[in-house]
User: Fold this.
Amino acid sequence: QVQLVQSGTEVKKPGASVKVSCKASGYPFSSYGISWVRQAPGQGLEWMGWINTYNGNANYAQRLQGRVTITIDTSTNTAYLELKDLRSDDTAVYYCARGFPSGRGVYFDYWGQGILVTVSS
Amino acid sequence: DIVMTQSPDSLAVSLGERVTISCKSSQSVLYSSNNKNFVAWYQQKPGQPPKLLIYWASTRESGVPDRFSGSGSGTDFTLTISSLQAEDVAIYYCQQYYTLVTFGQGTKLEIK
Assistant:
């Protein structure tokens, strides 16, 4: 069965970086892209970016450009999200999600369990 | 960016009653090449990741109860629950995937 298993909780100080992971199993990794979506406490969903797992090309949300990097390791079927220069408003649950290709953007049919990243001094 | 605006922000409905949630996009998400609307709907319960309910505006995901349905085209979309069950209490989000991805702000559904 399709599974996306994410790494554990992170606590970081303002200005630091965080790198979290999402290990996929149960399907051909290169056939579906991976997106990262975050949710601040009590807030809605914010799409952060997407990576094409076939060729490694990534697209990012404009407001996060320059601070976010999404990468993959095809040898372990794992996607990574790195966020730099952390601020308190980056405190959120970070989800990875499998993107079902549509010919344009993607919708998300499987989600990871979420990782709480807390940014606090 | 395409902005997705949901209404209402919250609603309380009696068990067994019909629920309607609206989602409007700031520009058309109907792709003329395939005549499809690039809209999905998700359900999120507390402490859980979102769950895909509907894609292509009206196609129900496998395993989703048939009381959930999606409709609309162009810029105006609706998620309908035909008869509210207790387990449907959740926050519902629309999403466009016509140009990258954006989500609506969410609609919180409670029991009256």
Remarks:
- The mean pLDDT of chain A is 96.
